Amino acid sequence: MRSIFTLSLLLAATITTAQVPSGVWRSPEGTVVAESKARRSVDGFGVWLVVTSDKDWESKWNTPSWVTPKFTEASNIKRGGSLTILIFVANAKPGRDNNLNVLCDLKITRPDGSLSVNEANARCLVGALRGQASNVRLSEPVIRFNADPGDLAGTWRVEVNIKDINRGLVVPVETAFELVEK
Question: For residue 56, how many other CB atoms are within 10 A of its CB?
């Protein structure tokens, strides 16, 4: 697979899109959203791993703060298609210097159990806090998956450990998608 892992330092990384009261994921209407393997909150710190087929995900993200973007979550991909894996973080704790220090371990496992990506301590959210800590932020790693001809069909697993260094907290999230033949 070519270019499966692209780290993008997006301008959107510090743009806010939604408020997360008390670090718990909520719908636009304010109701609590059930946690899952891909969406978790621990001690007020929220992490959400989204696999999307939206080619326009970036324009959906780059909206005013009062607009809640809606992403099409994908669970499968056909050969020749592409997906984008996004990591959202809410309520990262700033240090005494008002800087965020959130790192992530990224692992993508092929259907045969071999690793496609195995990156430890990648920058997730590092730098000065802008806006409220409870705002939802897009992490720096954005993973693009292109289902190339030589890629294995089957289940691809995505595992991410998000580490808020200032909190001393690690939140694991995971998801999977199926690469299917045409």
Answer: 10
